[in-house]
Amino acid sequence: MMIASVFHFRHPWFAAIFYFCAFIVIANLIHYVLFRILKKKEEQQVGAGWGLRRYLSQPARAIFFLTCAGIALPLLPPLPENLNAIIRQGIAMAVVACLGWFAVGCVYVFQEIMLRRYDLKAENNVRARRIHTQFQLFRRMLITFIVVVTIGALLWTFNDPRIWHYGSGLLASAGIASLILATAAKSTASNFLAGLQIAFTEPIRIDDVVVIQGEWGRIEEINSAYVVVRIWDLRRLIVPLTYFIENSFQNWTRESSDILGTSFLYVDYSIPVEELRTELRRVVEVSRLWDKKVCGLQVTNLSERTMELRCLVSSRNSSENFDLRCLVREQMIAYIQQHYPDAFPTTRFAATSEVPLELRGTSRENPQSASPGTLESVGVSDRH
User: Fold this and answer.
1) 189: Cβ–Cβ under 8 A, 6 or more apart, which residues?
2) pLDDT tens digits, one per residue of 364-379
3) pLDDT at 276
4) What's the pLDDT tens digit per position in 201-222?
5) Where are the alpha helices (DSSP H) in the chain?
6) Residue 190, C-beta contacts closer than 8 angstroms, at least 6 positions apart
7) Residues 229 and 218: beta-carbon distance below 8 Å
8) Mean pLDDT of 24-28
9) Where do you find CATH 3.30.70.100 in the chain?
């Protein structure tokens, strides 16, 4: 009682500071206990502890601090009216901004919880890629909406009716503002609309295998204005969103990641095709790259010197199929080298030599009359 009376009557500022610090300690204690529990859940791999700690820890701490400041404000001694209004206005605006920050964190946590169920590393990850792509696009739109609402709410914290009017206009005319921005920045608006089309029609998804402008790669990232394609040699191809709406391209994993691949062999007519077909089956059966669905060898073309053999094999995805096709080429070439070395494409020449009668007579009667060049050419022909 004595301490309280000293604080209240003799040291009002000290009492206010004491209560404020006490509230801060209590708020930090609550924050520590709450997020300590979430950390335990993270370690046990239960719940969404990691996402909550990562995205909500700092905004929650800021909200606790501002709440303590708002509670301690009435305990202060009487302040000048202008100073009191400025402090209250600052606390109110800070609370609104922190609530917007907290709402953005909630969007990220929700995405983290939902995407945890869909593994992009699964063999058949079509649904997972679809969900990841849609969540990335919707997350950006939600964050944009939260930012607009937060700015409008900040304007509403002022006591000036004129500023209230601006806040109401900002919240009520978001659609009109979007049209104005679309007129002023056509390319940005086109990319935004292309993002909506991609989210709903799904021509591409995260981790899709695509061929764009002759480059093979995977969709690594879908941003609000462009798409990052990771090329097979680790280069990055930056493509505007509108490209995927306005141009044609190859998507190898649109419906499924399964894919067929071909390897061509060019061999002599003398090779037995059935034995090569048996060898191809043996090669793929011992490889983990084959998905045990398709394996075939066919004569697909003939030329005057060679046969074209097509080895058709299937795999779970395009990367494994590329490796399997290389393996088929290597093993089939080695088999032909070992068992049918003469069956590789060859060019046959039939050399004939006939000396004209008049040249023969001239040579017998007078060998000196034949020019050295003629005799040399005849000799070369005879050797062949």
Assistant:
1) 178, 181, 182
2) 555 554 444 443 333 3
3) 93
4) 788 888 888 999 889 999 988 8
5) 2-5, 12-43, 49-72, 81-115, 126-156, 161-172, 174-184, 186-201, 243-246, 273-285, 318-339, 357-365, 372-383
6) 242
7) yes
8) 77
9) 259-343
Q: What are phi and psi of 205, to 5 degrees?
A: -140, 165
289 contacts 324 by C-beta, under 8 angstroms? yes
The chain-wide mean pLDDT, for the chain, equals: 76
Sheet holding 259-267, edge to edge: 259-267, 307-315, 295-302
The CATH code of the domain at 200-251 is 2.30.30.60
Q: Count CA atoms closer than 13 A to 370's CA, side-chain side.
A: 20
At 47 the three-state DSSP class reads coil
Helix axes 81-115, 126-156, angle to 10 degrees: 170
CB 270 within 8 A of CB 343: yes
The amino acid occupying position 350 is: A
According to CATH, the topology of domain 259-343 is: Alpha-Beta Plaits (3.30.70)
**For the chain, where are the E strands, in sequence order?**
209-212, 215-222, 226-231, 236-240, 250-251, 259-267, 295-302, 307-315
Amino acid at 295: C
Averaged over 218-243, what is the pLDDT? 88
Residue intervals in the chain for CATH 2.30.30.60: 200-251
What single-letter amino acid sits at 62? A
Tell me the C-alpha distance between 289 and 331, whole Å.
14
Distance CA 208, CA 211 (A): 10
Query: Which pair of structure tokens corresponds to residue 56?
Result: 């909500």
